[in-house]
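Many introductory courses stop at the sequence. We go one step further.
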Amino acid sequence: MRRVRVGDIIELHRRQVDVDPAATYEEIGVRSFGHGIFHKEPIRGIDLGNKRVFEIHPGDLVLSNVFAWEGAVALAGKSERGRIGSHRFMTYRPRDKEVSNAYLRYFFISDMGVERLGIASPGSAGRNRTLAVSRFEEIEVPLPSMDEQRRISCHLDRVFSITRPLKDQVSVRDKVPARALLPSLVDTVIESTTPRRVEAGSFYSVVSDVVHPGDPYGDAECFVGLQHIESHTGRRIGSLPLGDETGRKFRFRPGDVTFGYLAPYLNKVWVADCVGLCSVDQYVLRPSEGVDAELLAYVLRSASTLAQSEGLTHNLVLPRLRSKLLAGILVADPRSLGEETKERLNRVTERVLRLSDLEKRRTDLCSSVMPSALNRAFAGLE
């Protein structure tokens, strides 16, 4: 297997455009992670100002010199004919007929290729990691015969043609994830049990057990912030060990209910199962005597509560539901629901969680097929 310098097999082609202020131009961009070229809105020449732009031709290997380190590499097709790119886009053509840009495009979006582009793009992140022409052309790549290059490209084209529609379908379906249906299902179960509505503040007290930086943690085990609570389900999906906290925190205890009052539309309500700390963007609600914590959490996560929370905060730039407003929201009386209703709510939640987990698995599988095919295609070439 030959290993060759990029600069020995492809060359940079710059086709600078003499911009006509009265003409209209269409620029391209290149998505990261091998997701291809996209087209920007048409722009008048006069609005380009002094920006240097270059023609893009079908068959060009196009790299964003700003984001090449994260796989912003693409192959221009027929739809790019007549379009332009800024000086940030490097366009390459093969030096002879023994090199396929389609093959090189796939190589540079594989893990192996992205790693090399990253090494050739020094810096910290973003626009500080620029790929210079000289560093790119010094990269060595494995170059099999032209027949093998075509075979690899055709195989990956087929994989892409199969996986792309599946990913698009998954993306459309996941715009409304299964867990977003849960608040309405909770309402349905609750309303079949009791129509009675009472102010939420009747069923809890707000606990302000504040821990300041440097205070002892006591029996607290971990930090559970808003980012660790899944929207709509009340499921804890993470935590952080204690030790590096800054700012004030609230302490919660098993059976307390934490309510995310910052951005309440996220619907992050959790029944604590340990002693820990949470952010001051969460209320710690301690259920009143005779009030079941799980049922209280269910009524606070219901669609009717969510709608009232959003109605009270929709005109705020940074939505925060004040404690008095939360206390005045009308909710089902959790004391009138009983164990049978709780079991029904638990069953509904379990089914939605299973569906949500299946959605995630489906998304992960769809997202992993192409990277796996890329890595397998190039694994034997080193």
